[in-house]
Amino acid sequence: MANGEQVDRAALNKFDQKLYAPSWLAERQVAVCALCLACKLSSKLQKQLVQDTVITKSDNSPVSVADFAVQALVIHWIKRAFPNDGFIAEEDSTALRKDNSLLQSVTEAVNSVLSIDDSLIPSEVCDLLDLGNRPVASPKDRTWLLDPIDGTKGFLRGEQFCTALALVESGIVRVGALGCPNLPMSPTSSTSTSGSKVGCIFHAAQNAGAVMQEVERGAETFPIHVSDISDPAWATFCESWEPGHSSHELSKQIAKILGVSNDSIRMDSQCKYGILARGEASIYFRFPREGYQENVWDHAAGSIIIGEAGGMVTDGTGQALDFSKGRKLWNRGGIVATNGRLHTAVINVVRHVLQL
Ligand SMILES: Nc1ncnc2c1ncn2[C@@H]1O[C@H](COP(=O)(O)O)[C@@H](OP(=O)(O)O)[C@H]1O
Ligand SMILES: [Mg+2]
Terminus of the chain with fewer CB atoms < 10 Å: N or C? Predict the structure, then answer.
């Protein structure tokens, strides 16, 4: 009986949390509006992309007009709605302040999706970019984590990329949204994809579930849920397109031990979290080379979307990810996301193979 009481109380607590938790409706709406504009801008720039607008950052990853323009645009949009909020974002204005022609291109790009009354001047673009320099989403703050173009390599190849946005409040991710302009609304493997609309936004808020919608303000939302597979043999896993970002060999080895026989889905960016959240894949493996430290903006939005769609995201040891410790994410043994049901089995194999 005592056990029964405990179970009831746990269920009641969960119910209470849902009933009294803030819905984050305004934040979610503003985030979706910002991502609709971001998708419009990034799609346009991907089509126009000229290789000579690509410069090299100190970490040697390619960065384009789109990275700067989308960051300035999204921060502008969020800041206007929530003036006291702070930001942790990937880019800053250093390169633009040294290159007037790049700054002009970025300013023109941002203004191309804003109304004339709302247009920005170059110095405002630089200032907006630099608002993204917060060192930590501390428990006292509300901080938006932003990756303007996640999957830059996919963007440059004309393939998948996304804009990722998450709100951390009191050290916890409360809202997450992924704008994926090139991802079809239907499963990418489905035979009906040809007729499917391309471009989707995934979004979620704590205790409010996860949804997917077309890239359009006020579009109908469809609740999404992870797959209900409980036997790894039936699972499909996804991983980075780039073997330099996540070891394909290691995922293959782990998948083999788990008995997974389906081919992996290789895809750039946090779109992978989107396809896992809607049940198209059941496992996401990320095993970077030793010493690589992940960025908080590369996983925060995806994590809440997976959690709210019924799945789980942890590091390779099964530890929850903590987005409140700085711009870098502390983790051991890479990052593993699953539909939840498979998590323990997958983590056991990862720990065994990596000797964690
Ligand atoms: N050597 C490396 N190992 C793992 N991840 C890396 C990496 N170099 C860059 N990345 C990260 O991988 C992200 C892309 O992930 P994916 O391979 O899943 O598309 C990049 O995001 P950006 O494209 O925003 O820079 C970057 O943060
Ligand atoms: Mg990224």
Answer: N
**Residue 315 assigned as binding residue:** no
| Pocket lined around ligand 1, Cβ cut-off 6 Å | 61, 147, 150-152, 154, 240, 242, 244-245, 268-269, 288-289, 292, 295, 298
Residues measured by CB to lie within 5 Å of ligand 2, the ion: 147, 150, 298
The CATH code belonging to domain 25-223 is 3.30.540.10
Of the pLDDT bands very low, low, confident and very high (cuts 50, 70, 90), residue 2 is: very low
The preferred substitution site among 245, 271, 284 for testing ligand 1, maximizing ligand atoms within 8 Å of CB, is 245
CATH architecture of 232-354: 3-Layer(aba) Sandwich (3.40)
The pair of structure tokens assigned to 333 is: 């043994």
Per-residue pLDDT tens over the stretch 299-351: 999 999 999 999 999 999 999 999 999 999 999 999 999 999 999 999 999 99
Of 83, 76, 45, the closest CA to residue 63 belongs to 45
Asked whether residue 149 is marked as a ligand-binding residue, the answer is yes
Matching fold, domains 25-223 and 232-354: no
Instruction: Calculate how far, in angstroms, residue 292's C-alpha sits from the geometric centre of ligand 1.
Output: 10
